[in-house]
């Protein structure tokens, strides 16, 4: 359970950092690229065995790591577009509601438990995500923009499901650091390619603050992936429980931090969602 708590804490700090980026005018794209470079470096340092590139390429999880690296940065870009054109709350709801995909996968493929309390807890979790994230007046004005939250929903769900599948099927006991590093490494390469294109187009201007922001973000980003993988590796915790508790707890903590640190206003609907988040965690973990 400690690994799950650490993953939740790291993911919540990511939220705080993004809020600080906006406040201190940090270039988000540059910070994201530096974040992936930092996370890649940490994974390489944390790997206890000698680095053998040929052996890594020959692993069964290598192409899965490439796929995840592409998804990581692609879904982030779609989230940015969604936040700008539709609203941050819509992007947040689409991301967290995607928990239903790995939950159903775990119950169906791995035959995980699906008792009455757990089912009620999962439904309560989805309601909690919606109610605590949505802000008053949020609606999609252009019907063409519906595609963005749909992409986020399926993309985020596929990421979580793929991480669970690779961890269960292909990853050795000591493989979490290098697997995580490989994912972040390919995401960094794609990000650097994007910056290079902007540079060639004359649209790139280095933001020194993004280097510091990316360093901080990379540390907690690596921790969030590392500890969720460690939690999934736990013999007594089911993935459907882990993903539900992880997503709902992040929503709960970020909502409370938004209230106390950033003086965000919470509506009655948001408070109902926060209450449901607590109830859903109690129900899902009451196995």
UniProtKB/TrEMBL annotation:
InterPro entries: EamA_dom, EmrE-like
One Pfam family per UniProt: EamA
Transmembrane segments: 6-21, 28-47, 62-81, 88-110, 116-133, 145-166, 178-198, 210-229, 241-262, 269-286
Keywords noted in UniProt: Membrane, Transmembrane, Transmembrane helix
Domain of life according to the entry: Bacteria
Domain called EamA: residue spans: 2-133
Protein name as catalogued: EamA family transporter
